[in-house]
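tool=predict chain=A
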Amino acid sequence: MHDQTRPERSRAAMTFDQMLEHVRYEGSYPTRERAGEAVRTVLTALGRQLPDDERLDLAARLPAEAGLALTSSAPDTGQLTGWGFVKDLAARTGATPATARWDTGAVLAVVSALAGPDLLARILQRLPGGYALLFGQAQLRLAAA
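tool=predict ok
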């Protein structure tokens, strides 16, 4: 049975090459290959943090190659905070935390636009604190009563 609530993969707003160009611009990367490396590592790591529903919905809004990177690993049992995500990405790639943060911001700025506000809000609700800033959004907190 086909789930009508999930967008079709062919509805991605841009091609993978276009996505790489946007990430290359956002991250000021010297080459498309470097932008592609950032896209694959960040999306693979993000896929480990997202619950299945949000991961699959986001993958459907991304170009096919990016969606495959996002869904290439099963979700981890424990979620990381935004800063924990950056530190884990740095450790897995051998990069500095500053480079991992830069890569994350460049990739997730483009992913944020492709996700759209409703899906992005759902994603941020399901993740621990600190991810909004990684997606280029304000980190809003409710005032204590």
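Confidence is low (pLDDT under 50) at residues 1-10. The CA atoms of residues 131 and 137 lie 8 Å apart.
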